[in-house]
Write a structure and sequence with these properties.
Elements lengths: L11 E2 L5 E4 L6 E7 L2 E6 L3 E4 L8 E7 L5 E7 L5 E4 L3 E6 L24
Antiparallel strand pairs: 1-2, 2-5, 3-4, 4-9, 5-8, 6-7, 6-9
């Protein structure tokens, strides 16, 4: 919980290096580790979440969790210099980018002893 008392505009560091800077003294926020590769960030009003360097390159989307614990995406959210700006109450999921592994086709090669012609 960030700005628990709802009386500060000071930057506060929290869960796994995620920091929150309230836009107003009454703005409060929560960071929840949903899995090892995603977090839910909730803010009651305006403010900024600052992500640690370990989350560089992650993506963010706005939405909510449904009754089956599935993320319902409402919109993409921009992360600028590891900062997510909240202009209104919202829930944002920050996720590690999944990089696909390219498929490489390799022809079969006979590498039995005595086959020096294959290299």
């Amino acid at each position: 919980m960030y700005n628990y008392a709802g009386k500060s505009t000071d930057l506060e560091k929290g869960l796994d290096g995620i920091a929150y800077f309230p836009g107003t003294a009454s703005s409060q926020a929560v960071a929840i580790r949903h899995t090892d590769e995603d977090y839910l960030l909730l803010s009651t009003s305006t403010g900024n979440f600052s992500l640690p360097a370990s989350m560089d390159g992650w993506k963010a989307t706005a939405g909510y969790m449904n009754e089956n614990n599935e993320w319902v995406l409402e919109s993409d959210v921009e992360i600028i210099n590891r900062v997510i700006k909240f202009t209104a109450p919202a829930c944002v999921k920050v996720s590690k980018e999944v990089t696909s592994i390219p498929f490489v086709h390799v022809e079969s090669v006979d590498i039995r002893p005595g086959r020096e012609d294959c290299w």
